[in-house]
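Final report, closing paragraph on structural work. Over the funding period we assembled a curated collection of sequence-structure pairs, and we close with a single example.
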Amino acid sequence: MRYSVRQVADFAGVSVRTLHHYDRTGLLTPQGRSRAGYRLYDDADLARLQQILFYRALGFPLDEIAAVLTDPQANALDRLRARQRQLTEEIARLQRLVEVAERAIEVQQTGVSLTPEERFDVFGGIAFDLSYATEARLKWADSPGQREAMARAGSHSKEDWRRLMAEAADWRTALLDAFDAGEPADGERAMDLAEEHRRHITRWFTDCPPAMHRRVADDFVADPRAFALVVPVAEQRPGLAAYLCEAVHHNAARVPGEEHP
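Its predicted structure, as stored:
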C-alpha cells in the first residue's frame, strides 16, 4: 500500500513541508510517484521515516542521521552512546538551573527584600537553607503570626537586618560559651539565653509566647535546616540543638502562667 505526502504527514505528526525537505536533501525520497507526479510512500519509506524521527527526537542533526542510515560502516551504537552522554550532561545542567530557580523562589518567598549585594553584606558567609523557611511559610500560611513574621521580615531595611544579625551573633556566641562550659540546660544561664531568643523573635518578627517558642525549639531537633537558621552548620556542636530545645522548654515552664504541655 502507498500513501500520499498528506497522509504520511498526518499519521507521522510532521508537516508536509518537512517531508518535502527530507526529499530534497535525499534523507527520505519516496519510492513511488502518482500519475500526476505526486510523492507516494510505501512501507519501507515509512520504516525509514520512523528511524529518522527516532534520531531527531534524540537531537541528532539531519546530516548525522543520513550518515547512520546510509553508511553501512557508520557505527550507530557509538553515536547513540555519545548522544546519551550529551543528554545526561544536559539533564544535569538543567537540574542545576532548576535548583537555582527553586532557590530564587525560596528567597523571594521569605520576604527578605534585599539586593544580592546587600544580602552578602548583611549575611556574609552564612548560608541558610531557605527551603525550610519556605516550607514553614506554607505550613503556617493560615497563622496570623506567620503572616506577621513574613510582613515584618519584608519591611526590614538593610540596617535593620544588620542589627538583627549582630544581635543574633552575640546571642549565638553566648549560647556556645554556655554549652562548651557545661552549663546545664535547666540552669539559669541556659534558660536566660532561651528567653533572650524568644524575645529576639518577638522583637524582630512576631509575638512568640512560650508555647509557640517550644514548637520552634522542637523543630531545631527535628529538622537540621531549622537549627541552621539559628546556628550555622560550621558553628554547631553535637547535641547543641537538643540542648537549646531543652533550655527553651525549661524556660517556658518558668514563665508565669505557663506550664509544661
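The beta strands are 3-4, 32-33, 39-41. DSSP finds 13 helices and three strands in the chain. We thank the funder for supporting this effort.
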